[in-house]
Amino acid sequence: MQKSKEQKRELIPFRLSKAGWAKISALAMLIGAAAIFLLFYFYRSQIKFHAKMAVETFGYPALFFLCWAADVIIQPIPSDVVVFGTAFGGANIWETSLVAGFSSAFGGATGYFIGKFFGPWRFRRLFGPKLLRAGRDLFRDHGALAVFIAGVTPIPYSAVCWIGGIYSMSLTKVILASWVSRTLRYIVVAWLANLV
Fold this sequence. Notes:
Blueprint: H1 5-11, H2 18-72, H3 80-88, H4 93-127, H5 129-141, H6 144-152, H7 157-166, H8 171-195
Helix pairs in contact: 2-3, 2-4, 3-8, 4-5, 4-7, 4-8, 6-7, 6-8
């Protein structure tokens, strides 16, 4: 026996709209930012000590690998965290930015090949046809600009590189747009870490 819509609504006492979810997300981000600020305020010297030890122990190869891994896989922790920690630990701003920029361009190229491997039908099954159509329109009209904008903004950079591979965008354009945009972004992040 099928339940009516009213009976289904009675079973779910609380349902959020998109605006409600946006408010909860904004509040969670605000609480997270406040927690990070408090950690830095109270434990700045301890964090600086551990960041310096990590830079001295692992150096630029670890920065390269961690930035590459963060930019290949679609995940919530951006590579900016690693760049910030490296510069905060006393590494040179320019070297940190260049190493991280090359790593990110390599990560973007890896994501491009992942997109080529998955192809449109697997992507559609994982993320839905609406996102696939939006990606097709974006890369048909804007291509390298889309990768550049994703590289400097909070738009998921990894996903954009994957979609570039799905729609067979020029690999050279993906790598160049990735390297320029991510290096510029990392210069700002490393500079901010040096100010703190």
